[in-house]
Amino acid sequence: MSVSASAAFWFLPFVLPICFYVSFTDLREMRITNQAVLLLAAVFVLVGPIILPLTAYGMGLVQMGAVLVIGIILNAAGAVGAGDAKFAAAAAPFIAVGDLRLLIAIFAANLMAAFFSHRLAKHSPLRRIAPGWKSWDAGLKFPMGLSLGGTLAIYLILGANFGL
């Protein structure tokens, strides 16, 4: 992995709770809150300069901006939700460019697992544990925050263990 193990390790305690919160709120409310997105971006902006080289920090900020522009375009085209696009932008600086192929593989596997788990739970007695969740009755819509938050969490955990 191209990500620094040290950086991934230091980001984890700040990022993991946000990832869990995003997954939970998207399941419950079918939305990713602006507060969670801003907090994730703030973690990078505030902690990044302390643990990353200046070039890696700068590249992370560029990645955040680029993913935000792409996300706005995809949202305008109706391909992704606004919260999903904003979360992806806030998560982008945590990803090393050299790990993009690995990230896509993690996201694909996580998306399939999350989608099928959500659909199975939706039609099982497990649904009674959280009867008020909007994601149960969202039709064909899927709470992507479950996959997006999970992907960032898995990536950083792997990075802390197997990074440079």
Question: In words, what does this structure look like?
Answer:
With 164 residues, this protein is mainly α. The chain has one domain. The protein is 71% helix and 0% strand. Helix 2 runs parallel beside helix 4. The radius of gyration is 16 Å and the shape is globular.
User: Helix- and strand-based class?
Assistant: mainly alpha
**Can you give the mean pLDDT?**
96
> What is the makeup of the main sheet?
none
Strand portion: under 5%
What is the radius of gyration computed over CA atoms, rounded to a whole number of angstroms?
16 Å
Order of secondary-structure elements: HHHHHH
The count of strands amounts to 0
Helix content: over 70%
Outline: globular
Give the end-to-end Cα distance, rounded to a whole number of Å.
6 Å
- Uncertain ranges: none
Total domains, how many? 1
Transmembrane segments: 6-24, 36-55, 61-82, 94-118, 138-158
Protein name: Prepilin peptidase CpaA
GO molecular function: aspartic-type endopeptidase activity
Pfam family, one: Peptidase_A24
